[in-house]
Amino acid sequence: MHYGEIKKCDIANGEGVRVSLFVSGCTHHCPGCFNQDTWDFSYGNEYTDKTEKEILDSLSPGYVNGLSLLGGEPFEPQNQKVLVQLLRKVKERYPEKNIWCYTGYLYDRELLSESRARCEHTDEMLSMIDVLVDGRFVEALKDIRLVFRGSSNQRIIDVKKSLESGEIVPWEAKVKRGM
Fold first, then answer.
1. Which of 23, 36, 83, 176 is deepest in the core (most CB within 10 A)?
2. C-alpha to C-alpha distances, 63 to 16, 17, 38, 101, 176, nearest whole angstrom
3. Residue numbers of the chain with a pLDDT score lower than 70
4. Which of 123, 124, 100, 99 has the alpha carbon at shortest distance from 113?
């Protein structure tokens, strides 16, 4: 797997201060995507043990709320294979931190059901994600007033509650924002 960037103090891609990993590789190719360079599976740097250590070490400060996975597309099967190993280590080392993931795939129609994204790692990966922002970016539905998503069709899902209930449960912000 390759990645485009690691942000160690990100406040835009999930609640609180986060470490964000922008993986490479995406087959959605959404018009207006903010990160088109990462469509290429070979873009950026190779993900190595050193990369993983850097991410894990960056999560250690108490002010860091958790990890966000973005892309590219974290749920491309070749990315899931690597990311599931990272998520295991994050959950083991930092059980109090939360994990957010952004995906163009739909939670209920493509990640829980047969699709090109679904593979042997999907269920385990979902079990370790706390909040999932799903759905492709749709430029005609772009709204800069939205919190933690780019277009109004995208959903912010509480994955733990959704898996428990069998229904999609929207995420509820812990911090109230203006507007």
1. 23
2. 8, 7, 28, 19, 19
3. 175-179
4. 123
DSSP-based three-state secondary structure for 49: helix
Residues 79-97: tens digit of each pLDDT: 999 999 999 999 999 999 9
User: Could you tell me if 105 and 117 are in contact, meaning their C-beta atoms sit under 8 angstroms apart?
Assistant: yes
Distance CA 137, CA 142 (A): 8
Angle between helices 49-58 and 77-93 (to 10 degrees): 40
Backbone φ, ψ for residue 43 (5° rounding) = -65, 140
Considering the entire predicted model, what is its pTM? 0.95
